Amino acid sequence: MKRLWTTLTVLGFASILAAPSLAEMTIHLKDGRNFTLPVDPQDIDSMSFGPSSNGMGVGSSASAAPLPPLPAAPGKPGKSSSKLVAPIPGITPPAGTPATAAIIPPPAPPSPGAQPKASGRVLHVGPSRDIRTIKDAASQAKDGDMIEIDAGNYTGDVAIWRANNLTIRGVGGRPHLNADGEAAEGKAIFVTKGKNIRVENIEFSGAKVGDNNGAGIRAEGANLTVFNCYFHDNQEGILTSEDPTSDIIIDSSAFVHNGTQSGQTHAIYIGHIHTLYVRGSVFQGTTIGHHIKTRADNDYILYNRILDFAEGTASYSIDMSNGGRGYIIGNVIEKGPKADNFTMIAMAMEGPTLAAQELYVVGNTMVMDRSSGIFVHSRSPGLAVVANNIMTGPGQPMQGNGRLINNIIAGGASSSGLDANGGSGNKIVRDVGFVDPARADYHLKPGSPAIGAGIDMQQVNGFKLMPDYQNVYPLGVEPRAPSTPPDDGAYRFASASR
After folding, report:
1. Helix, strand or coil, per DSSP, at residue 139
2. With contact defined as beta carbons under 8 Å apart, do 400 and 384 qualify?
3. Closest CA to 481 of 464, 498, 460
């Protein structure tokens, strides 16, 4: 079907903002698609049809990437510890949090996607099993198999996975795969060449190779899901090849102390793929490189904790190197005093070469502990929408083509540019009112100016911009109850009297 792009030039509010007092204009296309947006008819200056450059008009649903299938809750056969996450020593707990926290099972995907096809065969791996090494299990694996790895230490046991539709999981605890100088194909602890592979409940550490790209997982086949895994002290946590058909899903996983002094390695480095989806995960202590570096066409960065703290030296917190379509929603992002770069969220810094150039930064808590910085920096021609966020600490809220809407700006953050491109509703305050920011507890205290400071947001490209979840320690998410008007930041204010 020939792709049709429709663009409206409208004065006044952005079409993504909920405005119940305005009339709704609906466009009916011949192929059955409908588009609706709120608009005052008196504000219409002109209407034009042409290529969409910034995503702020009415986007074509044919071009929008559907939300990829989410990882399902762990299931049979065998017994996994994935439902209750064991403490991870490298993750700094916020004040007052329990030693463990349950992971809320992800919601069902909005549309069916490609699901791994099970063969019914289970390969058991462990010192007391018939298959004693992970490498041997990989060589025996056939399409659709489940590989269950007993908890324990697996030193230098690296593997190449060539079969498709595999599930590789730790049972009885989280098995620790320490590379100890070994690397499959000189690349990684796991090299996944098959399609539709799921890895869950496994610890990866010590991946180091001569070209400084030693990864916990090197994803070369299309469609990888990583659930409840722990990557630490690798040159790269996850590194992918380029495959514009591939979806990478990372859910409820930890990336701690990955990277090298070269600055060319990162906690995760995602090549040009179709979609990256990262949810309920933690990134901490990345060395020099970026916590999240992605060249994906579509990026969903949702409900994560991305932290430097006092000793962290990471560069960008999130780097969408070539633009794309990005949804950065409900994250806690903290840039530390030793951070290698002053920018938190970077858009198209290596050139806006991807077809879509859209960025939506909504409902995040962003803390600048550096002496100065930029919270959102874009070199994309597309208009970035930055709404309902908390930005605290010295720095510039936005540099580049963006619209700031109903953000809380505090702690010395600059007030310059708040009204650019129709920005509105932003508030400058002295103090956000966090419960215990010194101990990384960024929940809101009673009386916080962020309570009820937000504005309702509509869907964009079929994706809901309003946060439905919030992150929990150590990993995972929990439902976030709606409030009217919504609170700014990554956490809803919790009060029985509200």
Report:
1. helix
2. yes
3. 498
Q: Tell me, what's the pLDDT at 365?
A: 98
Least confident of 27-36, 214-223, 330-339, 453-462: 27-36
Peptide bond into 485 cis (omega under 30): yes
As a dihedral over the C-alpha atoms of residue 149, residue 153, residue 155, residue 161, rounded to 10 degrees, the angle is 20
Distance CA 281, CA 226 (A): 11
Residues 95, 435 contacting (CB under 8 angstroms): yes
pLDDT tens readout for residues 456-486: 998 898 899 999 999 998 899 999 999 999 9
Q: Encode pLDDT of 358-374 as tens digits.
A: 999 999 999 999 999 99
Q: 422 in helix, strand or coil?
A: helix
Sheet holding 230-232, edge to edge: 153-155, 176-178, 203-205, 230-232, 254-256, 282-284, 305-307, 332-335, 365-368, 390-392, 408-410, 427-429
Reply yes or no: is the peptide bond before residue 474 cis, omega within 30 of 0. yes
Q: Tell me which architecture the domain covering 122-479 has in CATH.
A: 3 Solenoid (2.160)
How far apart (Å, rounded) are the C-alpha atoms in residues 192 and 271? 15
With b for 16 or more beta-carbon neighbours within 10 A and e for fewer, the 101-131 pattern comes to bebeebeeeeeeeeebeeeeeebbbbeeeeb
Token pair 């810094």 is at which residue? 349
Phi/psi region, residue 330 (left: phi>0; alpha: psi -120 to 50; beta: rest), is left
Tens-digit pLDDT profile for residues 248-262? 999 999 999 998 877
